[in-house]
Structure formats: C-alpha cells, structure tokens
C-alpha cells in the first residue's frame, strides 16, 4: 500500500506518478471503437473491471468515498481509442490524440480527492469547479459526479470536439465544455470552489487565483525550481494563499493560446 502525504504535508520530491506524454503513439479513429465493441459495449464486464480498479485505488490510498464512487461509475473505456480499450482500466496514462494524454486513474482520483479536501455542500458535493485541459473529457465526467457544476476548457479544437462527442451519450447537464485558453480561466463561472489543471505550467496563473472562492482550492501540476513538475495545492483563506508542494508528476505542458 502506497502512503501519500495529504494536504498540507510538504514534500520536495517523490515517486513519479503523473501522466507521461506519449506524443507519437498511433491514433485509431473513434468510429472504429463503435465498430469493434459488442452491442452494449463492454457491458457488465466493464463494471467488474472498474470495481477492481476502485479496489486498487483504495489500496493505493484513495479514501474519499465520493471519489471512489465516481471512479467506479464513469466508463473510462468510452474515452479511449479501440486499440487501447483493453488498457482502459489499467493504472496507466494513455494517448488521446494531438500529442496529449489522459492521466492514470490513480492520478485523476488523487487530484480530485485533493480538490475536494473533505469539503462539501448539503448534497455532499463540491460547488462549481473549473478544469483546465478537457482532453478527451474523462476527468470532466468524473468531476461531474462530485461537483455541482463543471466548467472545462480546452485549447485544442480537435480535442474540444472529441470531448463533446465522447460526453454526448453521458448527458451530463452540469458539464459545460468551453473552447479557449484556460490560462486566463473562465471569469463568467467564477468564483470557483475548485480549479484543477490537467497540464503543467511554470507557475499558477494569477487569473485562477482571482477566480477562486475564499475557501477554495487549486490543484495544479507546476514546474519547480529544479525544472521538474510537482503537484501543487493552493488554498485561498480570507488573508492569504496557502501553498503545499506534493509529489512529482509528469503532465503535458500548459500552453497559452488556442490551436
Ligand atoms: N483531463 C483530460 C487530460 C487531458 S491532457 C482528460 O481527462 O482527458 C491535458 C490537456 O490540457 C490537453 O488536452 C491540452 O491541450 C490541454 N491544455 C494545455 N494548455 C491548456 C490551456 N492553456 N488551456 C486549455 N487547455 C490546455
């Protein structure tokens, strides 16, 4: 069982746990997925596989029942391409096209657990959340189960469209997909109870801090002075931003502008 520090523990480095970019991996088409899956997709089998994945997440130290429940419910195999379906529930990052990756289940669960930080509203949910880097839409679907509203921004048109397509059948009324540069946040949805970044920048943009509610948290992979990425958690108090640097991670870079 892996023991990991919780917020506000402080670590300078740790084992590598993040999503490794695999820019050159082959990308089978999405429609091939529908042709290959038996009617009803992976069906009941996929629930059994997810249950095993959740047991593994719990053994690795994820303890928030809301996070484990959401990870057990969202069909990760619907977000990856045909050739990768058999790996959908393994603890591995996977290519999603345009040189980007979907993080390991363990990293997604860990970051959402940190984002929640034990905070909930009367319904046991976090309030409005902003996700930077929609990618294939998987993490947005998980967030939709633990937050009241999810605003998710993607800077690559191709992935924004792909996420829209992937999420269509899930009919998540509380997920709002946005095409744009997430480095400037999304002021219209502010203030946010949580902001979660799926790409690593040199620092946490001021816009995210400005758009965070008091009591809210930012969870973001960030490049440290040694040039390596670490998971950073920022918490806004009425008087200051509290920062905590956790384990080393490997996310795709946070880039400015759209493409
Ligand atoms: N959460 C995603 C992971 C996507 S990988 C999922 O579940 O699939 C990170 C994504 O961040 C990439 O798609 C990349 O294009 C995007 N990204 C990088 N910089 C960005 C920015 N400034 N604004 C919005 N998206 C950005």
Describe what is shown at a glance.
This protein is α/β, with parallel strands linked by helices and 259 residues long. The protein has helices spanning 30-36, 43-59, 65-73, 105-116, 138-143, 157-168, 206-210; strands at 94-97, 100-102, 126-132, 147-154, 175-179, 192-197, 212-223, 229-236, 241-248.
Describe this entry's structure for a reader.
The radius of gyration is 17 Å and the shape is globular. It has a seven-stranded mixed β-sheet with strand order 5-4-3-6-7-8-9. A two-stranded antiparallel sheet has the order 1-2. Strand 7 and strand 8 form a beta hairpin. The protein has helices at 30-36, 43-59, 65-73, 105-116, 138-143, 157-168, 206-210; strands spanning 94-97, 100-102, 126-132, 147-154, 175-179, 192-197, 212-223, 229-236, 241-248. It has a domain at 98-248: Rossmann fold (3-Layer(aba) Sandwich). The protein has seven helices and nine strands, in the order αααββαβαβαββαβββ. The chain binds S-adenosyl-L-homocysteine (SAH). S-adenosyl-L-homocysteine binds at residues 96, 100-103, 132-133, 135-136, 138-139, 153-156, 159, 181-183, 198-199, 252, 254-256.
Topology:
Elements: H1 30-36, H2 43-59, H3 65-73, E1 94-97, E2 100-102, H4 105-116, E3 126-132, H5 138-143, E4 147-154, H6 157-168, E5 175-179, E6 192-197, H7 206-210, E7 212-223, E8 229-236, E9 241-248
Parallel strand pairs: 3-4, 3-6, 4-5, 6-7
Antiparallel strand pairs: 1-2, 7-8, 8-9
The chain binds S-adenosyl-L-homocysteine.
GO molecular function: protein-L-isoaspartate (D-aspartate) O-methyltransferase activity
Protein name: Protein-L-isoaspartate O-methyltransferase
Family: Belongs to the methyltransferase superfamily. L-isoaspartyl/D-aspartyl protein methyltransferase family.
